Amino acid sequence: MEGRVALVTGGGRGIGRAIAVRLARGGAKVAVSYRANDEAAEETARLVREAGAECETFKGDVASSEDVDALFAGVKEAFGPVEILVNNAGTTRDNIMLRMKDAEFDEVLQTNLKGTYLCTRAVLRGMVRARWGRIVNVSSVVGLLGNAGQANYAASKAGIIGMTKSVAREVANRGITANAVAPGYVETELTGALSEEIKERILGQVPVGRFGEPEEIAEVVAFLVGDGAAYITGQTITVDGGMVMQ
Amino acid sequence: MGRDEILEKIKEITADRLGVDEGDVTPEASFREDLEADSLDLVELIMELEEQFGMEIPDEEAEKITTVEQAVDYVTEHQAA
C-alpha cells in the first residue's frame, strides 16, 4: 500500500483510528472523515503523522450525499483519487424491536448502510479508471448472528455484507476487490459503556476469552488492502476471537 | 473537430476500451448488442469520451447513447467551441 491514497470513514476514534494508523504504517497517505468530534480526529491525525504518513481530516456526515461529494473532492485535492476505501463509519441506537422508534431505525441504517453505499459509489469511478482499488467495509458479527436489542444495527451490518458481495462481483475484473471485516466485541468507547454483567455474558460466547483490540481489526484490513490480497474478494472475514466459525 | 474526425476517434477509443476490431465499430453498431459491452464497459467508455473530448456527459444523457452514431452526435453537438 506504499504511496496509495486511503480514506477511512469514521476515523476519529476506535477501530477507525486504529485502521488509519495501521495504513499509515504501511506507507499509505491517509484521509480521515469524521462526523462530530474535532478533538478526536485531530488526535488520529497526530498519530497518523507520528507513524510517518501524511494525513488530512475531513468533517462531514457519510449519510449525506452532499457531504460525501465534498469529502471525495477534498481528498482528491489533497492527495489524488482514493485508491483504498475503508467504510468504517458506524453508529448504534439500541432498542428492542417492540420499542424501536422509526428515528432509531432510520439513523442507524442511514449512517451504516447508506453511508457505505454513498462512499462506495463515489470511489468506484476513479478505481475503475485506474484498474485498481481496494474497498473494505466494516460489518460486525452482529450482522451474522443477530443480537437482541440491535435489530437496526444487525440489519445495517448484514446489509453491508450483501452490498459488499454485489459490488465485488460488479468490479472484480477491473482489479478492484471489495471485502467486509466483521469484528466481534472490541475494546472501544462503544463497548466500554457496557455493564460488567453484560461484559461477562459476552465473554462467555468468545472462545478466545477476551475482547478484541482495535489494532487486531486494523491488521486484517491492512492485509486485505495489500497487493497480496488481489485474489480475495466478496468475503466477510470475522475477527471475533472465534465467536463465529464458518 | 469535424464529424468525421470525431467518428474516427470514437472508433479508436471504442476498439481500445472494448477490445474489439476497429472495423466492427461502424456508426450503426450498438455498443451492447453488436460490440458486447456490459453496463460497466459503457460507463468506462463514457468516462473515456469525457476525458478525450474534454466534456461532461450527464448520466441521463449517457444512458441514451446506445450506438456509435449516437455517441458521435452527442460529441459533435456538445464539443467545446
UniProtKB/TrEMBL annotation, chain A:
GO cellular component: ribosome
Residues binding NADP(+), per UniProt: G10, G11, G12, R13, N88, Y153, A154, A155, S156, K157
Function: Catalyzes the NADPH-dependent reduction of beta-ketoacyl-ACP substrates to beta-hydroxyacyl-ACP products, the first reductive step in the elongation cycle of fatty acid biosynthesis.
Positions of the Ketoreductase domain: 4-184
GO MF: 3-oxoacyl-[acyl-carrier-protein] reductase (NADPH) activity; NAD binding; structural constituent of ribosome
Gene that this sequence comes from: fabG
Name of the molecule in the record: 3-oxoacyl-[acyl-carrier-protein] reductase
Record flagged with keyword Transmembrane: no
Catalytic activity: a (3R)-hydroxyacyl-[ACP] + NADP(+) = a 3-oxoacyl-[ACP] + NADPH + H(+)
Pathway: Lipid metabolism; fatty acid biosynthesis
PANTHER family: 3-OXOACYL-(ACYL-CARRIER-PROTEIN) REDUCTASE, 3-OXOACYL-[ACYL-CARRIER-PROTEIN] REDUCTASE FABG
GO biological process: fatty acid biosynthetic process; translation
Family assignment from sequence similarity: Belongs to the short-chain dehydrogenases/reductases (SDR) family.
Highest taxon of source: Bacteria
Automatic annotation (TrEMBL), chain B:
Subcellular location as annotated: Cytoplasm
The record's account of how the chain is modified after translation: 4'-phosphopantetheine is transferred from CoA to a specific serine of apo-ACP by acpS. 4'-phosphopantetheine is transferred from CoA to a specific serine of apo-ACP by AcpS. This modification is essential for activity because fatty acids are bound in thioester linkage to the sulfhydryl of the prosthetic group.
Signal peptide: none
UniProt cross-references to SUPFAM superfamilies, sorted A to Z: ACP-like (SSF47336)
Positions where O-(pantetheine 4'-phosphoryl)serine occurs in the chain: S39
Pathway: Lipid metabolism; fatty acid biosynthesis
GO molecular function, one term: acyl binding
A Pfam entry, by short name: PP-binding
Gene3D superfamilies: ACP-like
A GO biological process held by the record: lipid A biosynthetic process
GO cellular component, one term: membrane
Domain of life: Bacteria
Keyword list, A-Z: Cytoplasm, Fatty acid biosynthesis, Fatty acid metabolism, Lipid biosynthesis, Lipid metabolism, Phosphopantetheine, Phosphoprotein
Domain Carrier: 4-79
Main subcellular localisation: cytoplasm
Family: Belongs to the acyl carrier protein (ACP) family.
Function text: Carrier of the growing fatty acid chain in fatty acid biosynthesis.
PANTHER family, alphabetized: ACYL CARRIER PROTEIN, CARRIER DOMAIN-CONTAINING PROTEIN
Protein name (Swiss-Prot/TrEMBL): Acyl carrier protein
Originating species: Rubrobacter marinus
Gene from which this protein is expressed: acpP
